[in-house]
Specification:
By secondary structure, this protein is mainly α. It contains two helices and no strands.
Length: 65
């Protein structure tokens, strides 16, 4: 691809999907790391707040994933 032209549309698509997957995996790893270091009492307060808002709007409360 030194000429600046892709070999095929499928190759460009596959490269883009692979790059997106790597980005998503890195973001998920950072999120999981942050969750491991979170203060449980703060998380509980936030979840209570979120669940109050959800039920107020007619949605079911979020699970404690």
């Amino acid at each position: 691809m030194s000429s600046g032209k892709a070999l095929s549309v499928a190759a460009v698509f596959n490269d883009a999907i692979a790059a997106k997957r790597i980005t998503d995996q890195r973001a998920l790893a950072l999120l999981r790391d942050r969750a491991r270091r979170a203060a449980p009492d703060r998380i509980a307060r936030m979840m209570r707040h979120v669940n109050r808002q959800l039920t107020k709007q007619g949605f079911p409360a979020a699970s404690g994933e």
